[in-house]
Amino acid sequence: MAATGAGSPGRLVQYVVVRSDLVHQLSWPLGAVITQACHAATAAIHLHYRDPETQQYLEELDSMHKVVLGAPDEAALSNLSETLTKAGVAHKLWIEQPENIPTCLALKPCAKETVQPLLRKFKLFK
């Protein structure tokens, strides 16, 4: 099966939103922050493994598409999680333990156009 182009309607994407202040203000090592994103993405896939969109996303293993966005701080990340919950968008807010620090969140794979309006204010993670 041919992969759908990144800009094609219906393209399945997994969005990951990471707190940029962890690197830029709190001086977390970049590797630690990347690990948080990996945890969240894996958890979202696991929690929604039987979802048809998740299964379709996994079937296209060599052409998965992820977008990593930056949230400026914990408040912005928590507010986004609340917004997604209210909109019925399945996601996993990753809370690092034992510190109990929300570090990032990942959406289950979904059509880009269904969630992009909720994520519009977040820019690519730098």
Automatic annotation (TrEMBL):
Q: Which domain of life is it from?
A: Eukaryota
What's the name of the protein?
Answer: peptidyl-tRNA hydrolase
Q: Per its UniProt record, what CDD domains does this chain match?
A: PTH2_like
Which key words are in the record?
Hydrolase
Per the record's keyword annotation, is Membrane included, yes or no? no
A matching Pfam family: PTH2
- Catalytically driven reaction(s): an N-acyl-L-alpha-aminoacyl-tRNA + H2O = an N-acyl-L-amino acid + a tRNA + H(+)
Task: Write down the PANTHER family for this protein, in alphabetical order.
Answer: PEPTIDYL-TRNA HYDROLASE PTRHD1-RELATED
Q: What is its EC number?
A: 3.1.1.29
For molecular function, the Gene Ontology terms on record are: peptidyl-tRNA hydrolase activity
